[in-house]
Amino acid sequence: MSRTIIFQPAARTEFAQAISWYEHERPGLGRAFAQEVCQAIESGQDQPERFRLVRGGARIIRLRRFKAYAIYFATNGEVFSVLAVFHGARNPAELHPRLK
Question: How many CB atoms neighbour CB 44 within 10 A?
Fold first, then answer.
């Protein structure tokens, strides 16, 4: 099922910062990170119930190559909302208010 994808502002910022950081570390790595995030989002769009509920209606997709990152999302009808592109070393207290 194809849903409209909406990045919450904080998630868009996290995504852009991660791409920039990886690209600075090694050219092309930022693009690889972006591709993996996009593939994860596609997978979440197709079968959101496949992913574990973590808080409220939010679900989590763990990335495979970039294991420190996870995508937190929620669906509402035809809308797929990306709540966070979150690095696991960050304080989870920063994340909790966004997962209501």
Answer: 23
Cα separation, 70 vs 61, whole angstroms: 6
Render each residue's pLDDT in the chain as its tens digit; 100 residues: 578 999 999 999 999 999 999 999 999 999 999 999 999 999 999 899 999 999 888 999 999 999 999 999 999 989 999 999 999 999 888 888 888 7
Between the CA of residue 20 and those of 5, 9, 38, 79, 88, what are the distances in Å?
A: 21, 17, 16, 27, 18
pTM for the full model?
0.92
Task: Name all domains of the chain by residue range, CATH numbers in brackets.
Answer: 4-99 (3.30.2310.20)
